[in-house]
Specification:
By secondary structure, this protein is α/β, with parallel strands linked by helices. It is built from eight helices and six strands. Strands 3-2-4-1-5-6 form a six-stranded mixed beta sheet, sandwiched between helices. Helix 4 links the parallel strand 2 and strand 3. The longest helix is centred in the middle third of the chain and has 22 residues. The chain is globular, with a radius of gyration of 17 Å. The N and C termini lie far apart (about 35 Å). The C terminus is likely disordered.
Length: about 230
């Protein structure tokens, strides 16, 4: 066995996802649709069998949308495992763009959104740099992987954010893929961090309606499940 298995998921839809507002490290709650997504995800796991649905440790970002998703899944699955809240799993900090739609950002900072999407802008105004974000996520992935192995658990549910998951995938040498709500990876916690990531989605995949998603790797969950990139 290569190490404890980790189901690494993006949270369910938030109210700001529903209104197409950039979140970053803001803390809106889940939407009604998000609560329904959790129920769908629980049924998907239960349908795959008891071993897949059983977790003996839960880890999540401390932001409401992630911790509520993790708690809702645990309740639905009948899991009473410890739930660790980890601030280091928070999403990319988008600074002054938090709470705004793409149209509002473009209106206030003409041209900068396109530069950011193209990877030509290192950080939004007042936000986190791309390099700093990847360093933060690399450190927390290593620390959590070590902590998971030390605890001697076998299966972990980890709920965080789209940008965080993409950063972890990049750190594992993987090509980025869109991360929709309640999708992510099956992975193993190894001595070198998370490894052997395999894509997984617990919700039906809807057709993408917003054009080709930007793949800059620092998405801030500005849009909904069908348009998850920046």
């Amino acid at each position: 066995m290569p190490g404890p298995s980790v189901l690494l998921l993006r949270h369910a839809q938030s109210t700001w996802n529903a209104s197409a507002r950039w979140q970053g490290q803001a803390d809106p709650p889940l939407s009604e649709a998000g609560e329904e997504q959790i129920e769908t995800a629980v049924h998907a796991l239960l349908g795959e069998g008891e071993a897949v649905a059983c977790f003996d440790l839960i880890v999540s970002s401390d932001l409401k949308r992630a911790r509520a998703t993790a708690a809702g899944m645990a309740t639905g699955l009948g899991v009473s495992a410890p739930h660790l809240l980890e601030r280091g799993l928070r999403e990319y900090d988008v600074g002054e763009w938090s709470g705004l739609t793409r149209a509002e950002i473009e209106s206030r900072w003409p041209g900068e959104l396109g530069q950011f999407d193209a990877g030509q802008l290192e950080a939004p105004p007042g936000g986190e740099t791309r390099a700093g974000f990847d360093r933060r996520i690399g450190r927390i992935a290593d620390r959590l992987s070590a902590a998971i192995r030390t605890r001697g658990v076998q299966r972990v549910l980890m709920v965080t954010h789209g940008g965080v998951i993409r950063s972890m995938a990049r750190g594992a040498g993987m090509t980025e893929i869109p991360i929709t709500h309640l999708s992510g990876y099956e992975a193993f916690a190894t001595t070198g961090g998370l490894a052997r990531l395999q894509p997984v989605s617990l919700l039906p995949v809807a057709p993408h309606r917003g054009g080709e998603p930007a793949r800059t790797g620092s998405e801030a969950e500005s849009l909904g499940a069908e348009q998850e990139a920046l």
